[in-house]
Write a structure and sequence with these properties.
The protein folds into three domains: about 1-120, no CATH class; about 125-215, Immunoglobulins (Immunoglobulin-like); about 220-310, Sandwich (Immunoglobulin-like), CATH 2.60.40. Helix content is about 10%, strand content about 40%. The relative contact order is 0.09. It is mainly beta and about 300 residues long. It has helices spanning about 65-80, 100-105, 105-120; strands at about 125-135, 140-150, 150-160, 165-175, 180, 190-200, 205-215, 220, 235-240, 245-250, 255-265, 270-275, 285-295, 295-310.
Length: about 300
């Protein structure tokens, strides 16, 4: 049995530790697929998936549960000599909706992932810990360190939301501690940051995950540009609580406009993260000004400083 957190609960014949997981047990009665009750292995996922009715039902399997599924099936395949091609859904043998439409559609990919895991193995490449904090400008600052290194040659930091990968934020080599400032999250949501590592033999593993909940400001906000000072790409961030016409402009110290970054009507209740190439400017001090117009005229007007280095 696997719960939505990816925790695995051992069943018969391991009840009360009567049999060690290191031993090779006989097949246990009780899997009941097709009523045969023997010659098969049953793995159950806790949850309600099909049909998704009521507040207790979930549409999608969690990433944690799916990872456990793949690892468990690889273990069972190797231990009992069962080909991954034999992984089936309950509905293949009985008149039932189990394991749910969304889960059933994942079976081909699960078979592929199990087959790949049997080839590469899952000996740990590293262990890592992550932390994150959100500053007042809505920037998420993610930090990590590797607590164990068994041959890391590279790593990748990804951001996920709603079960989908939003972005590959950073790729690097080695296993040194580091931080990353993510200023591209724009809506109020819970996002997940995941750290993956690679080994010299081509294996890849996820070694750390942290979920971060973002709260939106209640008023118009112009964030401090980062990085600042800058010599290349920067991000100009601001928050709109309501729809408005936005004009974001960059000026030199003489008050002359040198760049118009935004001039349009934009939706409210979200952050905006505008990329800007400061490298196109000569070194010196500049000002970026955000003006927002609503139905009653200008509702927000603020200017901040940007320092450009040669």
């Amino acid at each position: 049995v696997i719960d939505r957190g990816g925790r695995l609960y051992q069943g018969r014949p391991f009840l009360n530790n009567a049999t060690s997981l290191e031993d090779l047990p006989v097949f246990a009665l009780g899997a009941h697929v097709g009523g045969g009750n023997t010659g098969n292995i049953g793995v159950s996922l806790l949850g309600c998936y099909h049909p998704p009715e009521g507040p207790s039902c979930q549409q999608e399997i969690t990433t944690e549960a799916l990872d456990t599924y793949v690892t468990l099936f690889a273990f069972l395949s190797e231990r009992y000599g069962v080909s991954p091609s034999q992984i089936r859904g309950h509905r293949d043998f009985s008149s039932t909706a189990c394991p749910g439409n969304n889960n059933y559609e994942l079976l081909p990919q699960i078979r592929t992932d199990v087959t790949q895991l049997l080839v590469t193995g899952n000996a740990p490449i590293a262990q890592a810990a992550m932390s994150a904090e959100v500053d007042d400008d809505g920037v998420v600052r993610v930090s990590w360190e590797f607590t164990a290194d068994f041959g890391v040659v590279g790593y990748r930091l990804e951001r996920w939301s709603d079960g989908n990968r939003d972005a590959v934020l950073l790729e690097g080599t080695g296993a040194a501690p580091s931080t990353f400032a993510d200023g591209s999250v724009v809506t109020s949501e819970t996002v997940s940051y995941r750290m993956y590592v690679q080994s010299a033999d081509g294996r890849e593993q996820r070694v750390a995950t942290i979920d971060v909940a973002l709260d939106l400001p209640s008023r118009h906000t112009l964030a401090e540009v980062f990085p600042n000072p800058a010599s290349g790409a920067v991000r100009l961030r601001y928050f709109l609580p309501t729809e408005g016409r936005v004009r974001l402009e960059v000026f030199d110290t003489m008050g002359r406009s040198v760049a118009l970054a935004v001039d349009e009507v934009q939706d409210g209740d979200r952050w905006y993260s505008i990329p800007f190439d400061a490298g196109q400017l000569t070194g010196g001090v500049y000002f970026y000004r955000l003006v927002i117009e609503g139905f009653s005229g200008v509702v927000y007007d603020k200017t901040s400083t940007l320092v450009v280095t040669p």
